[in-house]
Amino acid sequence: MKRTHKLAILGLGHVGSAVLARAIACQLAPEIVCIDTKPGVAHGEALDAMHSLSADLTPGMNVYSGSWEDLKDTDVIICAAGPSIQAGVSHERLSLARENTKVMKEIMANVVKYTTDAVFIMITNPLDVMVHLAATKFDYPEGRLFGTGTTLETMRFKYIVGKHYHVNPADIQAYMLGEHGNSAFPAWSLLHIGGVPIDQLDNYYDHEKPLDRAAVGHEVVETAYDVLESKGWTNTGIAMGACRLAKAVFFDEHMVTPVSMPLHGEYGLKDVSLSLPSVIGKDGVVKRIAPVLTDEEVELLKKSAASVQEVLKDNNII
């Protein structure tokens, strides 16, 4: 009998619990194990989730709390462990690096005891720093460990542009690239809607005013902090983004989306992890895309790389 797909969620705080809720709602995997440094939290979230399944909207699922050993037959791991940015304090994901570097070293040491086969999807911030640490220091197979990266920024970008042109955001081809953070940037040269490129959109789609590219790029980054200061944390968007990536793995979709992985000379960059369009399938990132960008976009990518590399050096990761 073929074994069913199994998902592990590491860290059941605001983000991890949201991942669990959306994984159940999307019927992402029939078996979900919850692991947290506070076993009571994992137990409570799993038990609460199992009670919800009595509604018979998501049949045939098994959610339970477990330990590191439960990773040995897991297909996909989503890691949301470690402290997150807090409302009312520095709006800089990179400021979390020192604390979460210690957390991630402990997590990865435990993970690799039981698996390097599972596809590992990182959410923990600062995302690109944590990805680079986990992907380069623990002998995890290339492509099997990656971060959500600018998947969330891309979702926000498409939402904002879709609202401007009165179209379904899902029908927009567009990417935010670079750091998951303040130096992320929209790759305007790659954007199109229904085959119509960016410089012709006003001729085809309804809009009330001309598109202000600088304002949109700024809004994509700042809207995260609007959510943070309004409710105290961000979790819904990133949870859906992580689940979407996991679905691409479970179903071997070869979905194309920007995720964070170490660069190996793309655009002359190395010793850093950033988001570029990537093909996601059952083995994780099965192909990395380095599309032709404008000179300005390449410079923005290099600026992003320098920002992340500074933190990597400060924490002795490179």
> What count of helical segments does DSSP give?
9
How many E-type strands?
A: 14
Shape: globular
Class inferred from helices and paired strands: alpha/beta
Strand order of the largest sheet: 3-2-1-4-5-6
Largest sheet properties? 6 strands, parallel
**Helical content class:** 40-55%
- Unreliable runs: none
Radius of gyration: 19 Å
- Give the strand content: 15-25%
One letter per element, helices H and strands E, the order comes to EHEHEEHEHEHEEEEEHHHEEEH
Mean pLDDT: 94
- Give the termini distance in whole angstroms: 45 Å
Describe this structure in words.
It is globular and about 55 Å long. The model has no long low-confidence stretch (mean pLDDT 94). With 318 residues, the chain is of the alpha/beta class. Helices cover 40% and strands 19% of the residues. It has nine helices and 14 strands. The strands form four sheets. Strands 3-2-1-4-5-6 form a six-stranded parallel beta sheet, with helices on both faces.
